[in-house]
Amino acid sequence: MGVAEQNRNHLPERRQNLKVGAARSGTPIVATLLPDCDIAQAMGARDWWRLPPAIRNRFERLSVKQSETLYRGVMSIVSCNLAGKLLAQLSRLIGTPLAPYRGRDIATEVAVYPAPKKNGKVWERRYAFPGRVPLSVKSTKILDTNAQLLEVVGANFGMELRVFEEHRALQFVSKRYFWEGFGHRFYLPDLLTPGQAHVSHTDLGDGAFRFQISIMHPLLGETFFQVGDFREVTERGDPAK
Fold this sequence. Notes:
Blueprint: H1 3-8, E1 23-25, H2 39-43, H3 45-48, H4 53-64, E2 69-80, H5 82-91, E3 103-114, E4 121-127, E5 135-143, E6 149-152, E7 157-166, E8 169-181, E9 184-187, E10 196-205, E11 208-217, E12 221-233
Antiparallel strand pairs: 1-9, 2-3, 2-12, 3-4, 4-5, 5-6, 6-7, 7-8, 8-9, 8-10, 10-11, 11-12
């Protein structure tokens, strides 16, 4: 069993069930943002100071930096089941937030930069799948006025995230998915979502880190799984080189 498969079998267990939600009163995303996507504020001091210094330094820089930060590496596994593949293709209608392909050892570049129309940071992953045009997948992390971390994609769809430290890694777990419009936030039933997302960011030392994401649907199983190692670079390029 390889390192990636071992990681897959040892995801932290602190997952919170999605809530089957109706609507609650709220305001549109663009009107409820704090100035910076401050992960420390979202997770609280206790968990923040339990993170390794390298992770804290990395996310502190990202929260205040007003220019692009680039990371390059290799996704050792990019996978989705049939349901995930269909969901990813449908998601192209709202900006391609999910990768619809599978592969091993996929060269990938990650760009983090300020969102052009709202506060927060865009996280854009560019995959170089062999024989395909490079695929760009992106979403925006923002804080609302309650210091609730949100990850939003196109058409005002998004999810609320719980962020915490576990196993000396930074963990993001989706609490519930939503759509915002007409001054309200409408929560989606879990069966109508890709599943509960769990992202971990683990420092590997020497400037490198591991990114891992698993999305688990209550009926459809693990719809998506990816894991890869990255390090910061100074300029954009072909991720495959």
